[in-house]
Design brief:
Elements lengths: L5 E4 L3 H12 L7 E4 L3 H11 L2 E3 L2 H5 L4 E4 L3 H11 L8 E4 L6 H8 L4 E5 L9 E7 L5 H12 L2 E5 L5 H10 L1 H18 L4 H21 L4 H7 L6 H10 L3 H23 L2
Parallel strand pairs: 1-2, 1-4, 2-3, 4-5, 5-6, 7-8
Antiparallel strand pairs: 6-7
Helix pairs in contact: 4-5, 7-12, 8-9
Bound molecules: NADP nicotinamide-adenine-dinucleotide phosphate.
NADP nicotinamide-adenine-dinucleotide phosphate (NAP) binds next to α1 and α4.
Amino acid sequence: MSKTRIAFIGAGNMAASLIGGLRAQGLDAAQIRASDPGAETRTRLQAEHGIEVFEDNAQAVADADVVVLAVKPQVMKAVCQALAPALGKHQLVVSIAAGITCASLQAWLGEVPVVRCMPNTPSLLRKGASGLYATAEVSAEQRDQAQTLLSAVGTVLWVEQEQQIDAVTAVSGSGPAYFFLMIEAMTAAGEKLGLSREAASQLTLQTALGAAHMAAASEHDAAELRRRVTSPGGTTAAAIDAFQNNGFQALVDKALEAAAQRSAELAEQLGK
Ligand SMILES: NC(=O)c1ccc[n+]([C@@H]2O[C@H](COP(=O)([O-])OP(=O)(O)OC[C@H]3O[C@@H](n4cnc5c(N)ncnc54)[C@H](OP(=O)(O)O)[C@@H]3O)[C@@H](O)[C@H]2O)c1
């Protein structure tokens, strides 16, 4: 990426986080440009990162190797159609918009190489997880560029079929909310067992953090880690039995199937 020039179309939360991550990785400010209709947004970004900013999207993409589409899905069609005449076939388009398919992007932009990404909210803290899919037009060098770009805000995984982006959306895209729900539920249960709300919340949060760190650092998978902390007849076994005897896996399956199905439906609607 030492010479790669990147243009961000839309300079909101996600673009700002990606730009911060790229700058922290040592990318030069002169390699990054951004466009956004908000004067305040542009001034802030310029002041924080020293990058060149534009009101006009077409100006921002001139000479860019990678064009990152970071606008809301609802405005994507209009943004792409207006941008199409300014784009060349050699420019990689990276879309981070939820629910916009490569077919839609190429219908609006022309046959440009496209990488479709599904990041998640912790990307704003550079602790994200993103699934990436590349169209056939994307070169090996462009795959590396997209990988480096999204790695600036967290972990990156490639999928081989675009449909798998719906599964990525169900697992990691919507996933942070499932853990928030678990934190809410455990905090409420702790309170019912006699702890103050603050104590239940602190214990739950630190347990979630500790367990995530342990799972990430361990050579064992989650099932093995769980077995190791579950003595037969003990307290953890009592809780795990209660979860499993009440359809925990079936419930999680159902929840993620619903998210994946909704992701496919939204892609259908947003592509029109
Ligand atoms: N935030 C997340 O955690 C997350 C996670 C996964 C995926 N994403 C995806 O990332 C994309 C950006 O999300 P975000 O949270 O960064 O949204 P955001 O903060 O609203 O950023 C979008 C920016 O685009 C600007 N914009 C609107 N119309 C434009 C146009 N015609 N040309 C150029 N810029 C324009 C907006 O300006 P105005 O505010 O003035 O309209 C805003 O500054 C979305 O497609 C979303 O699906 C986000």
